[in-house]
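# step 3/5: fold
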Amino acid sequence: MTRRWTLAARFALGGAVLTAALLLIGDRTGALTAAAVSLLIAVVHSPLVFPRSVGAEEARRLSDADGRPVVYWRPGCAYCLRLRFRLGPRSRRAHWVDIWHDPAGAAEVRAANGGDETVPTVVVAGRPHTNPDPRRVGEWLALPGRD
């Protein structure tokens, strides 16, 4: 659980240190800007931005039942963020697996990508797609029977 928040906590802590340093030299505007930017970056790189993660086994079981894609991701991944933001509210229809939180999910990603933990890896109907175009994932989510 703590690993999921590590990156976000580092951004927040770094921002707090920078904010304090700017306040000490009397730069209130810079301090406010640093605090706002670091907080925004911390939130974007936290698990809060993504739908609730489930374990790889549960995601596979749910996907088999409803036909929805399984998205393997990790906090801090720019491509995962791009996919999440481009999907918008539709992202909640997919089953998300945080590979830093679930070792079985990380193993599935490595198996699909020749030993690399390349994310996002989206599995649709048992077939993995590494870093697919967000429009394509949106099409998979919009297919009939996936509501």
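# step 4/5: annotate
Helices lie at 2-24, 28-44, 56-66, 78-87, 103-112, 134-142.
# step 5/5: archive (pending)
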